[in-house]
Amino acid sequence: MSRSPSTAGAWLFPALVAGQAALRLVELGVSARNERRTSGERAAASRYPLMVAAHCALFAAPLIEVRLRRRTRFDARWAGLLVATNALRWWVIATLGRRWNTRAIVPGDLTPATDGPYRFVRHPNYIAVALEFLSLPMAGGATISALALSLLDAAILFDRIREEERLLSRNQAWRRAFARRARLIPGIF
Q1: Is 26 exposed, middle or buried (0-12, 13-18, 19+ CB in 10 A)?
Q2: Of 43, 49, 130, 142, which has fewest CB within 10 angstroms of its CB?
Q3: 134-184, pLDDT tens digit by residue?
Q4: Is 177 exposed, middle or buried (0-12, 13-18, 19+ CB in 10 A)?
């Protein structure tokens, strides 16, 4: 017996959210290990709790929205974008290795990463975050959550990127490596 799209969405979307949350916990473990090995200044440290709250909302708000609407649809195209987003994030993590962490700790002895996704843009991890905030809710048809959370994320990332670049630009090698590289989207930002 095959499931109707709405029945499939009723379990596929929560399963996707749970899987994404589990992946986030793995990332937090990697970050915590790396943070213990790193010393330096944290970018936008006072706003980190807001960022954590936004990420928690990313896993709760879409589920609440689709539950209140009493309909869940599962959109495989958005789920596919989420998978690609995760691939980008793990490419960033692999490229930065021990230097990657969620608190944006910028060490004084920074050696800038110019390979992997950093060949194309200065902040590929933030592209992944922005795409996740859009694609995860949209995979379940939670359009209000996608819009509201994406706007909140954009405000948080704007401030964080500005502060992170202020700290990074103290490093002459970073300034040379990224002077002509786009922040997020080549040719636009």
Answers
A1: exposed
A2: 49
A3: 999 999 999 999 999 999 999 999 999 899 888 888 888 887 878 777 677
A4: middle
Angle formed at CA 110 by CA 187 and CA 156, multiple of 5 degrees: 55
| Long-range contacts, 2-6 (Cβ 8 Å, 24+) | 5/73, 5/74, 6/71, 6/72, 6/73
**Among candidate residues 176, 152, 139, the one with its CA nearest the CA of residue 65:** 139
- Length, in residues, of the chain: 189
Gap between the Cα atoms of 58 and 20, Å rounded: 10
Distances (CA, A) of 74 to 19, 129, 143, 151, 174: 15, 21, 12, 23, 42
Angle at which helix 143-168 crosses helix 124-139, to 10 degrees, equals 170
- Which tokens hold the place of 183? 């922040």
Contact predicate 122/181, CB 8 Å: yes
